[in-house]
Amino acid sequence: MTTESLIRLIYYSEPQKSMSNDDIDEILKISRENNQKNNVTGVLFFGGADLIQVLEGEESVVIKLYAKIIDDPRHKNCQLLDINFEQERFFSEWAMGYTPQEHVEVAKLKAKLSNHQKTHQKSLSEVSVLLRTYLGKLA
């Protein structure tokens, strides 16, 4: 029996239309149900006009999920920011964590992750620290 590799995928996208708190609640409800079934964990950062999502799970499951997200008409300008094989999950307790952010904060996070993607000079541990800093706002 072979086990697939664990990956962490981070992407950015923009909603096609304005999203209300009810819209976000519905997305989170469905995501949490589906993610629990598929052993996917992660977190969603939403800043009103854009979002960043981190997905963790078996390689084939996460790749298929991301492909579905790209085709979802509720998204536009979907950009893969980072993808890595991992030994363990950051978000093992969350089928889908959520942290609302100011638009400017999500933009800053995207810029840092994009810079990481373009230069490949920042280590994954630095990105991890950055994500944990934002997650600290959940507490």
Beta-strand content estimate: 25-35%
Round the mean pLDDT to the nearest integer and report it.
80
Instruction: Give helix % range.
Output: 40-55%
How many domains? The number is: 1
**Over all CA atoms, what is the radius of gyration?**
14 Å
**CATH architecture tag:** 2-Layer Sandwich
- Widest sheet, order of strands: 4-1-3-2-5
Query: What is the CATH topology classification name?
Result: Alpha-Beta Plaits
State the end-to-end distance.
40 Å
Principal-axes shape call: globular
Just give the CATH class. Alpha Beta
Instruction: Give the biggest beta sheet.
Output: 5 strands, mixed
Question: Could you explain how this protein is built, in words?
Answer:
The protein is α+β, with helices and mostly antiparallel strands. Helices cover about 45% and strands about 30% of the residues. It is built from 4 helices and 5 strands. The protein has helices at about 20-40, 60-70, 105-120, 125-135; strands at about 5-15, 40-45, 50-60, 75-85, 95-100. A 5-stranded mixed sheet has the order 4-1-3-2-5, sandwiched between helices. β2 (about 40-45) and β3 form a beta hairpin. The relative contact order is 0.23.
Supply the key terms.
about 140 residues, alpha+beta, Alpha-Beta Plaits, 4 helices
Task: Summarize the SSE layout with pairings.
Blueprint: E1 6-15, H1 21-38, E2 41-46, E3 51-58, H2 59-71, E4 75-86, E5 97-100, H3 103-119, H4 124-135
Parallel strand pairs: 2-5
Antiparallel strand pairs: 1-3, 1-4, 2-3
